[in-house]
Amino acid sequence: MERDLSAIHHAMRKPLRSEMAKGELTRPQTAVMRIVVSRPGVSLRELSREVSLAHSTVSGIVDRLEKRGMVVRAADDGDGRIVRVRPTATVTAWIAERLPQLRVGPLEGALQRADPEEREHLAEAVARLRNLLAPAANSN
Question: What torsion, rounded to 10 degrees, do the Cα atoms 25, 26, 28, 32 define?
Fold first, then answer.
């Protein structure tokens, strides 16, 4: 069952991984982008701490992301010495519009290929499995 669940997870994430690969981001760039997207306006200092890299290294990563049009940096309104990093409108739009399709698309496609009875059985089985796993997750 674990192997099947792992395969399901892999199949559902494949379109997203493929799309991310097109962006040709390094692991550190991906880590920085995740934080910038989840916390728009994060300071370079906070970003450095979050990814556990030197400030100069993160500044260089942000430089490269900025050249690619993925982030913008600006001085903090209250303290001009602090640099804030935000995703660009293009990145924000991609996250709002394209990302949900990439995450849900494989599941929707699979469920459309199933007949109504199969969909009902699958929904019940998944809900039951989630409920069975809930006590285990809460005990950790």
Answer: 0
Query: Which pLDDT value is given to residue 100?
Result: 81
In this structure, what DSSP letter does residue 115 have?
-
- 87-97 residue pLDDT tens: 999 888 888 88
- Spell out where 1-140 has E strands: 42-43, 71-75, 83-87
Q: 3-state class of 35 per DSSP? A: helix
Q: With the C-alpha atoms ordered 18, 47, 73, 101, is the resulting torsion angle positive or negative?
A: positive
- Please report the domains of the chain, with CATH numbers, ordered by start residue: 2-135 (1.10.10.10)
